Amino acid sequence: MRVGVEVGGTFTDLVAVEGGRLVVTKVPSTPKSPDVGAFAALTASGIDLASIEDLGHGSTVATNAVLERKGATVAFIATAGFRDLLFMQRHDRRNIYDLFYAKPAPPVRRKDCFEAVERLRADGSIEKPLDEAKVKAELLPALRDGGYRAVAICLLNAYADPVHEKRLAALIGDALPGVLVTCSHQVAREFREFERASTTLLSAYVQPVIDGYLHRFEGKLAEAGFKGRFTVMQSNGGRLPAEAMRQSAITALYSGPAAGVVGATRQAARSGYKDLITFDMGGTSTDVCLVQDGRPSLAAETEIDGLPIRTPVLDIVSVGAGGGSLAWVDDGGMLRVGPQSAGADPGPACYGRGGTEPATTDAHIVIGTIRPGAFLGGRMQLDGEAARRAFEPLAERFALSVEQAASSALQLADANIVRAIQLVSTERGRDPRDYALVPFGGAGPLHAARIAEELGISTIVVPPNAGVISAYGLVASDYTKFDAVTRKMKLDDAAARDAGRIFGEMRDRLAAQFADMKLPGELDYTHTLDMRFVGQAFEVGVEIPAERLDSLDATYLSGLFADAHHRTFMHGATLDRPVEIVTLRVGATLPIGGAPKLDREKLEARAPEQAKIFHGEAWLDCARHTAEALDADEQITGPAVIEGYTATTWVPPGWTAGLDAADNLILRRSP
């Protein structure tokens, strides 16, 4: 049996698949102890843990450790003269008109930053050897007296040759055996000192937290009889065994959103849809990602709390628009929605746990798209009157009816999501009208049609059990690991041949790492060159087909670069300037050998009920269907509501909906 457990901001979801059997469970998250909520989902499912062969897990533990500044006490070591690297950062200013603007603060104090006397040149040659005597006499005693749980080492130009980092780490390991040491060449072997230093520091900062979390969870699993493989989702859309994640904790930052993209991509592919815009609207946020030809877009860098992280991640844009997002009035008297969220505790007002502020879920109850007695299949009762009371102050403030105030809040949430989708589509040179929209999460299918109309999208693919797609993605994802190395080379035939040789070395290194993780099998590889015009500040990723690696030349690479540069910037197709290779990237994937099929629970067909939905400025009569009772040949014409156990779908006027052979609900906009 394969099981996925995903810890979200509001709910913890579980999906278990074995043959034709499907188990779906949702329990409230426990933000203060995520492992408690995760294990509660396993307990509530009634699954015998001894029968689980593969348990995939994703959580927000690493993310929360950074955002809440609850990571380990960490020391940072840089080359002499670069102690203030993390505080000086880049010479940019995010908010140029903010007189009180301050750069994002790293999770380390200046007094916890130290220097090592050494120096490497950009080509990796040694200019000044590591002063080991000074390390032993001054640095090691300072680290010992500081009581640090983790140490981050980022030495100048260590991406070219990590010889000094390795030696310094060995000295610290011998003197302080209980301290976890993270080196920059282990997590980001690329140039740009600040980004590399930030990535190394954050990795060291969250590593003890992840290590402790996984130890606690594994202990509970062992006590319950679990003997299968325990894996953790990464931000890049692939899993790794839990033991390997202890060495690369930074890759687990956005595991939940990444799992959702993988699950949605797998399920939509069963219906033949490979060009997608995935749209995950949960309790706290909405995450969107563009998928081209069945492959989610990757980004080489992301950031958290304003701090850069140089590690491959799915190119996901997040906005604070979820079921728990609060409607509020700003200082200028304008209505806003999010990013503040009611979260899991106390949750929206309708949860009856003490929340009084109006949230998106409350708005849906007010306009009728969510029935209080049907939430989670009736397993969780909601307070409809509390939802109305929450919106009354806003309605009075803007001289609106309660329904109009709720509808206005939903329109603002939709506008935030539309903008996020534009960031991953039109601003990346992609037309959203060429893609199918795949909504999931508890609230996604409720908003999908309105968002599709705004973007001109004509097809929506709603997966079965859409509210737990992220958990499904944990059991449907492959094992993946990436490697990157900076090697600046002016493009010519010799540099092209060197690139092919370095790619081969990187593939061998990744294959050895998979062998160490006891993951045998044939690996699939991707190869990318980060290239730019000489003099440009940033690079464009150029993917290289595997069959061309042994015959690379400057002319071929120049053509690929010209196409990629023009697609991104709409200029630069004529190569009248010299080009250079900056960084080489290789991804290695071990396919799981067929993702399990996600089906819907099937109930006996039943006649739809009549309902009223507030749409636009008026109440509409519509039919209310049960998703699990839909007939395979049934076509539904909007307006209609389709209620499922984990998510509800709104089919507005002008849209039709029907199940296909893969159990996906396909919505199409009438011409």
From TrEMBL:
This is Hydantoinase/oxoprolinase family protein. Residues 495-662 form the Acetophenone carboxylase-like C-terminal domain. Residues 2-172 form the Hydantoinase/oxoprolinase N-terminal domain. Pfam families: Hydant_A_C, Hydant_A_N, Hydantoinase_A. Coiled coil: none annotated. Residues 196-480 form the Hydantoinase A/oxoprolinase domain. Transmembrane segments: none annotated. InterPro entries: ACX-like_C (IPR049517), Hydant_A_N (IPR008040), Hydantoinase_A (IPR002821), Oxoprolinase-like (IPR045079).
